[in-house]
# Entry
Amino acid sequence: MTTRADDDPTRALLRAALRHSGARCAALCAVSTAATAAGLLLPAALGRTLDLLLTHAPAAGRWVWCSAGLMLLLAVLDACASVLAGTVDARATAWLRRTVTGHLLALGPRAADRLGAGDLVARLVGNAAQAGTAPGALAALLAALAGPLGGMVALFLIDPWLAAVFLAGAPVLALLLRAFARDTSECVARYQRVQGRIAAGLAEAVGGFRTIRAAGAEDREAARILRPLPELSRAGHRMWRVQGRAAARAVAVAPLLHLGVVAVAGFLLTRHRLSVGEVLAASRYAVLATGVGVLVGEVSALTRAQAAARRLGEVRALPVPRHGTRALPPGPGRLELRGVTARRGGRTVLDGLDLVVPGGTTLAVVGRSGTGKSLLAALAGRLTDPDAGEVLLDGVPLPDLTHDDLRDAVAYAFERPALLGPTIEDTIAFGRVPPSPAQVREAARAAHADAFVRRLPDGYATPCAEAPRSGGESQRLGLARAFAHGGRLLILDDALSSLDTVTEHHITRALLTHSPHPTRILMAHRTATASRADAVAWLDDGRVRAVGTHAELWRDDAYRAVFGDEPAEDDGDRAADEVIAVERPSPEAPAEGARR
# Structure
């Protein structure tokens, strides 16, 4: 059962969506209520027309036209309500997707870590569309409630005994609706959770489709993704059973009430207290008053929308990192981590870590897989926050900095860069403040990406989707993007792993001599990269085991074991040094050149 605290983000989200389409929702409610009012007037008009026709009164013709006009008005109002409902749903859905997407981007990696990329996509696509129907469903429900209430009032006006017969069974109908809403909410929530699990499995499979194909495990993966289908089927069947039971109970109760009203109306007709037309009107009003079918449909739609909004509310409830108001003072980019502890998946990855990176230096971070190198990289530029301790840049804690100051000061390059932007030039320029075209090309040359970009059909104007790239070329574009944006701190999170040895040598040399960033942190896996850094931080068991030059640390057998059997300087590095010594241009990697 959902607690009140859990419901608060959901209610806040639905209220905001309702306010966003407030004018249209009000118009929808007004039009739907007007249609209900026209529907309530129609039985009275038809009854009056029948009485006049039976007595051959001269006014019968006018009442026939009045009834026809009401039916035409009812059709027009229903059409307008349908158009408005579609408009409200579309606007609310768009607003929800925009709002939750913005919140997700502000959250950063923690949202995907907690909920999973596939589940997030399911929430943004399917659940947002379902939740977007909530404002329209609420307006329709208010108008639908006017039908039974108006029908009951009309029965009272015809004869109080008719209303009394209906009121005797009304509590049963109310209990049916209440039980239906409760059971439907539980079933829909379970159904949507299972949908999210299937979407998460599909996202994982799409991300690893090459591995799946290479292993010949297509059928096994399809079975894994679809394993929750029986549970989804059970949840779906339960929803239908709940709705079917509610409809069956309504069918059992509503006709009895209808028959009771008609029977009393017939009895009053025999006593000359009602006319034939009034009996007809009473019969129609009894149908409206017992219109549980309409209410069941509207309650079901609103319940499904609320369940979907609850899943969006879970995303919105995740706290977004807050930024301060301080500006960075002048400084060389000195980075300091004090007592930093970070946990992931219930495991302490970094434990009370202390590290100082002097401004203007290059630090290589080495360690075995799983020691927290990527997490340290994320903490250094505040892509995530530590569970304890603090990170400072030039003496200022990162949370105290304004968003713009922080993002202008820190640049990142990643192992698998997301190349965002319509063209190659836009991809390199992607950032808060785009650099000039000259800066883009200079950064591409520093990252050794300029040569292969110029060979593309339209050079820097080539659409990203039409630019075939190897893994190393993608990394070079990511490096160029980092180089193009100045700042105090450059963090390379395994951003050289797909490069050939010679290209890595050239880029590392450019980093040390021509980088626009005074301070550089590299997550290193090769001895060549570590040896060129000013200092090496050796991570082990969640702490910094030692800091020193690569040559100093190389004397330790445990440090050498981090690199496996790799020698201090391999043949490829010596070849690269020879290439640089004779000042020959850097050759393309065979795998990358052959691919083109």
About this structure: Strands lie at 335-344, 347-357, 362-366, 388-393, 396-397, 410-414, 489-493, 519-523, 535-540, 543-548. The mean pLDDT is 80. The longest strand covers residues 347-357.
